[in-house]
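Budget justification note: compute hours in this period were largely spent on complex prediction jobs such as the one shown. Inputs:
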Amino acid sequence: MYSIGVAAERSGVTIETIRYYEREGIVSKPDRTSAGHRIYSDDGIARLRFVKRCRDLGFPIPEAKSLLSLTDGSQTSCSSACAIAEEQRGLVRNKIADLKRMETELSELIGQCPDSEDTCPILEDLLSS
Amino acid sequence: MYSIGVAAERSGVTIETIRYYEREGIVSKPDRTSAGHRIYSDDGIARLRFVKRCRDLGFPIPEAKSLLSLTDGSQTSCSSACAIAEEQRGLVRNKIADLKRMETELSELIGQCPDSEDTCPILEDLLSS
DNA sequence: CTACAACCTGTAGTAACTACAGGAGCAAGC
DNA sequence: GCTTGCTCCTGTAGTTACTACAGGTTGTAG
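Corresponding output:
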């Protein structure tokens, strides 16, 4: 059993964020010592790591919560997990497409950068488009 | 001269957002009618469109504000504009790299999806990593 | 027994909007 | 002249996922 500080270190989730996850019901409330300090089991820490990994993969909190709750379900839940992951991959791909469009347009702007002397093509471009 | 509704339509910025930009000092306060309604010139609308275009390119509000204020500067400001744009392109590229990493990892998860019957590889993976 | 670190609760701040609530003005039709 | 309904006004609260205190208690090492 570990203190919140140790749990933070082992899970990669900061103390403040652990408390936030608890408040929001993303992870269940841990036991407390007689003085009111939180104590975490290996399992509790594993669940924190699970949420962290989900977040690193870009899953929104509600999806992370759903995935976590699927871990103690039956095998029928696996297809749900896959569906959530595919949905997420779709969102990520859309974001990539958006950002690539931005990069292209930024490069076009930058390409015509300090060229003439009395006008700024980049600012002109932003003003007129 | 146009009402805020028309300005919103022509600039692509919603009414609420126009008022927000004004409150935050991103665009200057427009004149008012005797009844207190905002009135916009073509120039004011152009500035709203400028901010919108910056935002669409991913520039944060402070950068959009800087770029906008550069538009009435001298030609020396052009190099500043370019620097801001290059900085922004760097940020966009970093985001793309992050998202591509996510996509790869998500694809790895999805790839091993409904395979066996009694365990869910995707959930196992998230739990153990 | 005294520091000092780690913990506690509760609140406020972040980015960039978005969504009301509650009220006033304006144009058209009767 | 009056009602209907649209647009406008201000001001405040909500969104996402945290992060950063303030102010107080507990646990530990010397």
